[in-house]
Amino acid sequence: MNPSIATTSARPAPTFPANPLLQTPEPALHAHCPVMHVTYHAQLPERLRQQSDDTIRVLMPGEKAALHVEHRSTDGRARMAFVRGHHVSVIPPHQLFGLSCQRPSDLIVIQLDRAFFEATVREALGVAQPRLVERHAAVDPFLTETGRSLRSEFQVHRNPSAPYLRALAGVIAIHLAKHYSDGQRVVPDHVGLPPHKLSRAQEFIETHLEEGIGVQQVASAIGMSPFHFSRMFKLATGRSPYLYITTRRIERAKELLRSSRLPLVDVAAAVGFQTQGHFTNVFHKYTGMTPRIFRLSAQERDRTPAPSQPGGKTPAHPKSDFALGETARSANGAAIGACA
Length: 340
Fold this sequence. Notes:
By secondary structure, this protein is an alpha+beta fold. The chain has 2 domains: 30-189 and 317-339, Jelly Rolls, CATH 2.60.120.10; 195-287, Arc Repressor Mutant, subunit A, CATH 1.10.10. 44% of the residues lie in helices and 17% in strands. A 6-stranded antiparallel beta sheet has the order 1-2-9-4-7-10. α1 (114-125) packs across α3 (162-180), α3 (162-180) packs parallel to α11 and α7 (241-259) crosses α10. The model is unreliable at 1-11, 17-24, 185-189 and 306-340 (pLDDT under 50).
């Protein structure tokens, strides 16, 4: 794979629309490179409709999102797919689709240039003209983890840089070609835990984060043995239950550090750590900074509005790329292993 492949030798870089979906209640956040555009919608309207252009779109809803995706099957009939936080949708170019929200939902939208996708796949896999199959409500650990990482960066106002997105675009192109192409094996509707059990496990974890729960408690809550649950959970999410619980604790801690003045010892207790020292060590391991520095940095960003470029665009911030890249690379390896 060579992520630096040009779109084509004679074709100019694609122009992406400023907002891939219709007007949303809150302003969308954007990051882009010449071959890929990423948009974060913090709050979607109840209904919206969009004609896909000459780009491939990947829809990655937030963990608590609940969406209905309206689309047409190959025979032209109208269809409806229910897409939740552990699902993704892959939409080939020029496909009409619509969304309706069942509850307040956020969404990451990736637009990948079709010509770049074809050139990348041709060089990496030797496929002359890859043809994507439209998929909705697919369980895809790699794309879900990629969306979660991008969402986390947007939420702290640290947009990934263009060079990083260009490299990520190549990884996504290969992944789509391997798992969503005509003639290739497509990811089944669920891998590992059935969706209803995965949802129950995730809800149990969210409800009991402050209690210092472990794999045994989560497995017991959904009626499975710890060993079988751990194996099936990793197949479904690309992460072990321990890693999933730890990252959810870190994300919850980030929210508390950004939005409250709780002492660090209370933040640690609220997310299931018995001591502030253990919390600090784990937080630093996963974010690259201590809780105190993270809080000061978040407060400084809130006080200082980001400078605008002509057209109202916010410049990218490359300092977030390392953490995001490490997460995406590890998720890619886990997902390919799980889905191959």
